[in-house]
């Protein structure tokens, strides 16, 4: 089915199922599960927190795998940078506390 015109629906269903399983397993284990919005995580510098002019943007930016922040001069791999930004969101959430 992934090679038919229904491919997007089939592939989206897989991600939805994974999310449901993660939520269930986390709830069962007493672990907090939170979905993070990944928008701009590859563009935001994980060191200074700015979105510099030098960061990869748009569809053309998908080819750019490494970039250097024009604000602080830190070199980034786009995937590692995004992972650091998502981790920082999780740490901020834990530092603030989780409402019950």
- Quaternary state of this entry equals single chain
Task: Please provide the ordered H/E string of secondary-structure elements.
Answer: HEEH
The whole-angstrom Rg is 17 Å
Quote the average pLDDT.
Answer: 82
Q: How many β-strand runs?
A: 2
Structural class: mainly alpha
Shape: flat
Strand content: 5-15%
Largest sheet: 2 strands, antiparallel
Unreliable stretches: none
**How many discrete domains?**
2
In which range does the helix fraction lie? 40-55%
Kindly report the spatial arrangement of strands forming the biggest sheet: 1-2
Could you tell me how far the N terminus lies from the C terminus, measured between alpha carbons in angstroms?
A: 41 Å
Q: Tally the helices.
A: 2
Characteristics:
100 residues; mainly alpha; 2 domains; 42% helix; 6% strand
What does this protein look like?
This protein is mainly alpha-helical and about 100 residues long. The protein has two domains: about 1-35; about 40-100, no CATH class. About 40% of the residues lie in helices and about 5% in strands. It has helices spanning about 5-30, 80-95; strands at about 65-70, 75. Strands 1-2 form a two-stranded antiparallel sheet. About 10% of the residues are buried. The mean pLDDT is about 80.
Q: What's the helix and strand layout?
A:
Elements: H1 7-29, E1 66-68, E2 75-77, H2 78-96
Antiparallel strand pairs: 1-2
Structure described in brief:
By secondary structure, this protein is mainly alpha-helical. Helix content is 42%, strand content 6%. β1 and β2 (75-77) form a beta hairpin.
